Description:
Helix content: 40-55%
Strand content: 5-15%
Radius of gyration: 18 Å
Number of helices: 11
CATH topology of the largest domain: Rossmann fold
Distance between the termini: 17 Å
Order of helices and strands: HEHHHHHEHEHHEHEEH
Number of strands: 6
Amino acid sequence: MDAIGKAATAIARADAILIGASNGLSIAEGYHIFAHNEMFHRQFGDYWQRFGIRNVLEGCFFRYPHEDDRREFLRRLQQYWVADYRSSPVMKDLLAIVGGKDYFILTSNADTHLELSGFAPEKVFEIEGTFENMLLGTPVADKSRDANAFLDRYRGRRLAILEMGIGSRNRLIKRPLMQLAACEPYATYITLNLAHELYIPAGIAHKSVGLEGDIAVTLRALKRALS
Length: 227
């Protein structure tokens, strides 16, 4: 059985799915917070000209001379990346993969695309907050209790851990997911990323599946394998 088949089988047999997602998932949709690209120039070209800001991440944390400039950057970001957003094929495929199974999502993405695509807000924990939190200055919603309740519910059961677009050295989400895979006897760790960021420790290699390449392509293949 190939890697896609192994991953699909683990998901199909799972009692629940724990999803971890970072920038790679947003990039697969076409939203790249690190990119100095055509989209950035179309939406924030004047910020590049005025302040030398090269990408969305810099724009979010730049020390502006006036608060109005910061608020306008965040207002546009909220408009272009959230209010104007329409669910992508990537998110539709992910929804189909989850299907009717119980799930919980840990993400460092601030764009709320998961909720806007149909995932239940109470099952999505934006660990570092959202663009709206930044714009309004509101606190991050701490859903640690919800996450722990989910883990308690499926302790010792068949858990598919689906990790997408998280850097190989990430400690915020990836490291805890790998530790969970190590201690849960019936967990399967499935990681999707580009080849240079794909990492599976030797200790959980026997219960892991690495799917390298474009996440959008991989999710489509997984959806086909599950249908």
